[in-house]
Amino acid sequence: VASELISDGDILAIGAGTTATQVARSVCLHKGITVLTNAVNVAMELSHRDDLKVIVTGGFLSGDWFALVGPAAIENVGEIFVDKVFMGVDGIHVEHGLTTNYPDQATIHRAMIRQARQKIVVADHRKIGAIGTALICPLDEVDILITDKGVSDDAIAPFVALGIDVHRA
């Protein structure tokens, strides 16, 4: 589903996380793509592609989930405008917005969202209604939510009511 939202020539930002990594794998269907990421594993996933550019934010390596964070990462993100950002989250809640359990990751994801024309959240059904410990951004900054078919109509109804375009994969 994420791949269908990507056009040839797009400049994308892809955050760290397992769901966002799956988005990176779908980029293979498009040509002339530039990908900005703070995820070492996303950069490695795309490194074999001669037909796209990969920009890594730099910064401090955080934990065992391959995320680059810190002032250098945030500064580098702030220098590039992107067509679309694909953001994985630990929670997406109708009142509390997008959240993560990693404050350093919240900061870099917030910077990516600021630089994007279209903001796309990728979250499986377990993340719907969940609240992490650190705010990424409120829901009014989200354009599209991609989730899985395990989510109920009741769970996504509040997001649709807010004008978020919800896709099930």
How would you describe this protein?
It is a single chain. The chain has 169 residues and is an alpha/beta fold. It has helices at residues 18-26, 40-46, 71-77, 103-114, 153-161; strands at 11-14, 34-37, 53-56, 60-62, 67-69, 82-88, 91-93, 97-100, 116-122, 134-137, 144-147, 165-168. Strands 3-2-1-6-9-11-12 form a seven-stranded parallel beta sheet, with helices on both faces. α1 packs parallel to α2.
Main beta sheet = 7 strands, parallel
Q: With helices defined by DSSP (H or I, 4 residues minimum), what is the helix count?
A: 5
| Overall outline | globular
Overall pLDDT: 95
Radius of gyration: 15 Å
Q: Structural class of the secondary elements?
A: alpha/beta
Strand content: 25-35%
